[in-house]
Amino acid sequence: xxxxxxxxxxxxxxxxxxxxxxxxxxxxxxxxxxxxxxxxxxxxxxxxxxxxxxxxxxxxxxxxxxxxxxxxxxxxxxxxxxxxxxxxxxxxxxxxxxxxxxxxxxxxxxxxxxxxxxxxxxxxxxxxxxxxxxxxxxxxx
Length: 141
Prior knowledge:
By secondary structure, the protein is an alpha+beta fold. It is built from 4 helices and 8 strands; from the N terminus they run E-E-E-E-E-E-E-H-H-H-H-E. It has one domain. The protein has helices at residues 64-81, 87-104, 109-122, 124-127, and strands at 4-6, 12-13, 18-21, 30-31, 37-39, 44-47, 52-53, 136-138. The strands form 3 sheets. It has a 4-stranded antiparallel β-sheet, covered by helices on one side. Helix 1 (64-81) packs antiparallel against helix 2 (87-104) and helix 2 (87-104) packs antiparallel against helix 3. It is globular.
């Protein structure tokens, strides 16, 4: 029987490549196993066309001033789950970057601060390598 393998939990997908410079700078260039995420030693983050993410997480609203920060943050957390970044060392930097990008995109400083606080206290499982997204198979056998 023919089957497909897929991962659940995504609701957005970029339609063109996105590149930005971020303050996280690994000691070697990184490329995710999927090939959708790249991060250079100079801090250039590239997300390939077709990269999928779940948008802002938690009890929040997916507003335009949250989307750019959420895609960068989700990509960095994915690199942590894949053990390409260290979630113990790099997590706070990723959380602070989300806060900064949201403010740059017009989010009220108080809301951006609440986003950061929420991640500080509840975000660890999402960056932990033991919580990689499971692969599902359809049809189930």
